[in-house]
Amino acid sequence: MTNEGRRTPIRVLIAKPGLDGHDRGAKVLARGLRDEGFEVIYTGLRQTPEMIADAAEQEDVDVVGMSILSGAHMALLPRVVELCRARGMDDVLIAAGGIIPDADVGKLKSAGIAEVFGPGTSIGQIAAYFREHARRARD
Amino acid sequence: MTELPAGLASGERRPLARLLTRIENGDPSLRPLLPELFRAGRGGHLVGVTGPPGSGKSTLVNALIAEWRRAGKRVGILAVDPSSPYTGGAIMGDRIRMMEHAADRDVFMRSMASRGELGGVAGATWLAAAALDAAGFDPIVIETVGAGQSEVEIARLAETTVVVEVPEMGDEVQALKAGLLEVADIIAVNKADRPGADRAARQLRAMLSTAGGRVTREPPPVLMTAATTGEGVAALAEAIERHRSVAREPGMARGRARNQLRRALADLALDRASGGPGWEAAIEAVARHERDPITAAEELLP
Questions:
Q1: Span B3-49, pLDDT tens digits
Q2: Which residue of A lies nearest to B117 if distances are taken between CA atoms?
Q3: What is the extent of the structural domain holding B61?
Q4: How far B255 CA lies from chain A's nearest CA (Å)?
Q5: Is the domain of B82 the same as that of B19?
Q6: How far is it, in rounded angstroms, from Cα B186 to Cα B237?
Q7: Residue A2's closest chain B neighbor by CA?
Q8: Cβ of A2 and B118 within 8 Å?
Q9: What is the span of the domain harbouring residue A101?
Q10: Most Cβ neighbours (<10 Å): which of A89, B22, B84, B240?
Q11: Which residues of chain A have pLDDT under 50?
Q12: What is the ipTM of this complex?
């Protein structure tokens, strides 16, 4: 509790829901966000929505970012939103990236996914979005 | 507000998670809560786990959690990782090895970034451990990469410190160089399924029985573990449990209290004396070689 260094980093959970085994994108993002000054908690592969929500709750993150390539996004991502909200995490920003067809983006957004980042999105764009939309003023 | 958050004592996750965030952020409104936080402690066993990167600390802690859960214990884990000194960012990956316990309501795990030196990782970690204690977790594990002074400090705050080594690190020269061994209450030679583990354990035992910083104490036990298969993990859990009573002997408790007090005093002095206009002037004076840092520090203290 010192006077210096009061700026508190944004905490982000990066998770891979479902069964696809490719986490290069997630790792590149984790590293990129670290370099942008975020505190990144990486949970690894093959997470259930329950594991992700429980980790987000314990870590009290500002943002949950999920990378999914398997095509199961419509089954898994809204479930994570539901579980997070049920645990009282009303102000946590939940975003997704990976291979998600345009046709599904609207549905995901109405299910509570704040933004969907497709292939080719730069880390800088994602970092800027998180900085702008993550809850900062907290009780 | 001088009351602890509602739901903390009954072990609810969200109030605890929020409290930990305030602790990490150095929230000044926590100050009046501290006496109550420490009074609410329930005597959970504070276990430090440290060792070089890649020695398998997280996997070993994961195996210990499983062991403790079988015994019906509620386990708290603080995994501390370094922040980048350049960007302030951090990647914390200790959860990868522990996700199987993520949904277990009786396991609470928190990743903490060290966030620079001022105010100190040790200070925040100690408070975070106190919060887990007030929430009824026992044991409480603090996992750190054994790579620097702050990690050794964290180890000094723990009641029982387990240093995790790997067979390749076990040769005598490395052992002598590693100051970490001096803070060890228990040494786990992990990855014991690899060649050379026996030899490494033997050399460590021989080295520790003849030398080292701790003349007043028995040399720490050297155990062999293979976290991925679970081999030796039950014996390690037993050794940790046995050490609990040793750690609570009056002399040991006083030693830890001395370290805590030293740390708190240093933080407080820094907090009170830094940041103001005198601080900037002192930095200038030292930078220009007009003042030596010790005299400048003396002048800053009220």
A1: 889 899 988 999 999 999 999 888 889 989 999 999 999 999 999 99
A2: A5
A3: 13-248
A4: 24
A5: yes
A6: 11
A7: B271
A8: yes
A9: 11-133
A10: B240
A11: 1-6, 137-139
A12: 0.89
